[in-house]
Amino acid sequence: AFLGKEDLSLVCVDEPQGFKSSVPPITEITAPLALIRFHGRNTENWERKGLSSTEKFNYLYSDEELMEWSPRILEMAKKAAELHVIFKNKHADFPVRNAMQMKELLGLT
Questions:
Q1: What does the pLDDT average to over 7-11?
Q2: 63 near 101, Cβ under 8 Å?
Q3: Both ends of the chain: CA-CA distance in Å?
Q4: pLDDT tens across 23-37, in order?
Q5: Buried b vs exposed e over 37-73: b needs ≥16 C-beta within 10 Å?
Q6: Which InterPro entries match (predicted)?
Q7: Which helix (H) or strand (E) holds 105?
C-alpha cells in the first residue's frame, strides 16, 4: 500500500530461495514503471563471503527457468505502463544470452 501511495516501484527479483537473505519474487505492480531483476540462481555462491559480485551472480538461466517467468512477465506488462526486465547474472555474456532467450520466449523477436 505504501509503495502505491507514493508511486514507488516494487522491484521484483529472481534469486536463490531458501536463504535468510532471500527475497521472494513478488510480481505486484505498484507504479507505472515495473522492474524485474534476474540475479541468477547460483545457490552455491549466494551467501558465501569474500566473493566478487561476478562470482556470486555467475549463473546462466535455462530455457525452462525462463519459461516459468513468461506468463508472469506478460501479466505484469499488461498492468504496468512500462516494464523493464534486467539480467544481473553478470558473468561473461550470460546476461545478453538470457535476455535474447527471454525475448524469443516472449515472442518479441
A1: 96
A2: yes
A3: 36
A4: 999 999 999 999 999
A5: bbbbbbeeebeeeeeeeeebbbbbbeeebbeebeeeb
A6: DUF72 (IPR002763), UPF0759_sf (IPR036520)
A7: helix 94-105
Q: For residue 88, count CB atoms less than 10 angstroms from its CB and return exposed for 0-12, middle for 13-18, buried for 19 or more.
A: middle
> Mean pLDDT over residues 67-89, rounded?
97
- 50 residue type, one letter: G
Name the residue type at position 94: F
d(CA 3, CA 77): 18
What whole-number distance in Å separates Cα of residue 91 and Cα of residue 20?
24
Query: What residue type is 28 in one-letter code?
Result: E
Q: Residue 45 is placed in which grid cell?
A: 555462491
Which domains does the chain possess?
A: 2-105 (3.20.20.410)
